[in-house]
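Lecture 7, part 2: worked example. A protein chain together with 1,3-dihydroxyacetonephosphate.
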Amino acid sequence: MKTIAIIAHDGKKPEMVQFLNEFRETLNSNQIKIIATGTTGSKTEAAGYKVEKLLSGPLGGDAQIAARIAEGLVDMVIFFRDPMDKHPHEPDIFMLMRLCDVHNVPLATNPATARLLIRGFA
Ligand SMILES: O=C(CO)COP(=O)(O)O
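Predicted complex, written out as C-alpha cells:
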C-alpha cells in the first residue's frame, strides 16, 4: 500500500480534477491510499475517489501532511501550486516542500511533473 498526498490551490483545482480523471486507472487502485487537504479532498471525492480528508490548507492541512511526511507515512506528494496567487499559509507550504526534500519524498508541483511521477510509480 502506497500513500499519495494530493493538494491543489484554488486556481489549480480544475487541473487537479483533470489529472485525477486522466490517471483514474492507476490512482483508483486498492494499493493506493489518497490523503488530501480539505477542499482538494472534497473535489477528489466528487471525482469518484476514496480519500482521507485533512484540514483545509489555510487551516493547517498542509502542516498535517507535512507532519505525515516527517513520520515517513507519505510516498509521494502531488501539489499543484498556484504561483500567481498569494497564500496566507505560505510558511506551511514551504515546510511541506522542505520536508519532502529532507525525507526524499517525490514531489510534483505541476501536472507535467506529476504525469512523469505517476508513470514511474505505476
Ligand atoms: O491551501 C492549500 C494548499 O496550500 C489547499 O487547501 P485546500 O485543499 O483546502 O483548498
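The two ends are 12 Å apart (CA to CA). The mean pLDDT is 96. Keep this in mind for problem set question 3.
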